[in-house]
Amino acid sequence: MKDRFSDLILTALMLLLANILVSQSKPAYVIVNNKGKQVSYSKMLKKLSKSDVVLFGEIHNNPICHWLQLEVSMDLFAIKPISLGAEMFERDYEESLQLYLQGAIDEGEFKDTVKLWKNFRTDYQPLVEFAKKHSIPFVGTNIPRRFASMVYRDGFEVLDSLSDQEKSWIAPLPILYDPEVPCYKNMLDMVPGHGGPNFPKAQAIKDATMAHFILHHLRSDRLFLHIHGTYHSDNYEGILWYLRKFQPNLTYSTISSVSQEDLSKLESEHMGKADFILVVPDRMTNTY
Q: Which of 100, 166, 168, 177 has its CB surrounded by the most CB atoms within 10 Å?
């Protein structure tokens, strides 16, 4: 009996060791700084907590991004008051979002009245519910999609035709725009002939609008954490370019997300994308 018990203990220890070795050799992610040097989660969190605004660029269908967004939100909230904002909610649905957060409408009414992304339930609802539970301010920051489409077709000038209420859902006119900012200039090379010079303008109006509403809802006693697609803040451009134009004296931190086969070394194309870069395996299961 004693030998059998010893064998069971030994088996359990071997299984535990195997799990540890697997977890070390098959990490779900690593975090590196803008020079590609691996850093700990706690070091990243410490830096983020000293910022006025944190821009978290995600891969929209990556579960590790969404899990870490929730973890970062929870851990920052444990350190200091925070506010949350997201690209995934357009400004014309802001009233319904706030009613849901306040408990004035139920989940069914919320989902019936807001245009939600198809991965809302798995990827963004946990963050919304966390904010609701703890009375954390959470705002939508994005331009109504149809207005960005209008800019894509006809340029910024078409926005002058909007009503006063509709203009309240976007960044103030006229829109500040520099076509030489690399993230906009490069868009013309991504899909040659696709939309011409208005193609990057449609991206810029989103960036400008998100930056505007981040600052509009920023409070001196709260860190503002914003969630968006990684291209909106990669290389310290996009949203951050506008934030620095409007409020250059604030402290900003950025997170980018990349996918690559080998996690042991950041690929050269990703160097310098952000203060912190979340690197996930390219074989990671997607949420859609």
A: 100
Q: In this structure, what token pair is assigned to residue 262? A: 């080998």
Q: Determine the Cα–Cα distance for residues 235 and 203; give it in Å rounded to an integer.
A: 15
Mean pLDDT of the chain: 92
Given this model, what pLDDT does residue 12 score? 47
pLDDT tens figures, 200-229: 999 999 999 999 999 999 999 999 999 999
Following CA atoms 271, 44, 127, 273 in sequence, which dihedral angle do they give, to the nearest 10 degrees?
A: -10
The pTM of this model reads 0.90
- Over range 45-67, report the average pLDDT: 98
Residue 182 and residue 238 in contact, taking contact as beta carbons nearer than 8 Å: no
**Block residue for tokens 């920051």:** 141
Say how many C-beta atoms besides its own lie within 10 A of residue 189's C-beta: 7
Instruction: Return the closest-CA partner of residue 172 out of 237, 94, 228, 246.
Output: 246
Quick check: helix, strand or coil at residue 31?
strand
- 201, 158 contact by CB (below 8 A): no
Distance CA 165, CA 191 (A): 34
Packing angle between helix 198-217 and helix 145-154, nearest 10 degrees?
140
Enter the DSSP assignment of 143.
P
Q: State how far Cα 258 lies from the chain centre.
A: 13
Q: What percent of the chain has pLDDT over 90?
A: 88
